[in-house]
Amino acid sequence: MESPMHRKMPARLSRRHAVAIIGAALLAVRLDVRPARAGSTVAQFVEQLGDRAILQLADPAISDGEREKRFRALLGENFDIPRIGRFVLGRYVRQATKEEMAEFTQLYEDIAVLTYAHLFASYAGEGFRVKREVGDPGDRYKMVMTEVEPSDGKPPIKLDWQVKVNGDAYAVVDIRVEGASMAITQRAEYTAVLDRNGGDMADLLAQLRNKIAKLRADRNSS
Q: Domain 4-215 adopts which CATH fold?
């Protein structure tokens, strides 16, 4: 089983991928993350999130192991993996035991790290700009509309961020690439697998373990 976030991506990493991977690999930032700088808007928070990922992960001088370590730390600090795990499992989350959910959470994180960390070494610096922030004062959710300008001159790519506002802390809860919700798409992929196997979490976990073994083997052979 492969969700859209687990499929092979191009070797050349654009700013779109650099930002979207951080926002969409797990699809929601913890509400207790360090907020953007005092006085920052939600739009500035989105811009800072992407810049931080580039700064920490796109250095070509660091090793693959160090890049994976930094990527995992970034996920652990900024993303609520258990929350996302519950969302992508949909109704099947009620059938999973505490132990199954704990393993699923760890496997989900491992796949994200092994799939995406090394791609940041190829960041090519394509243009990224915030267009506007949509929402009224006091809204619990706001949308930040952004565009990515490909270096080949093709039309801009629309990348929109849905952000939950909790005081002066912000949490990304979904990213829409050209209008398609990545959270909803990924949930459909996972629940489709569970539909086919009768909701067997043990089977899903086995597939994820196999996926991780393959990713590690591919990395070691490259």
A: Nuclear Transport Factor 2; Chain: A, (3.10.450)
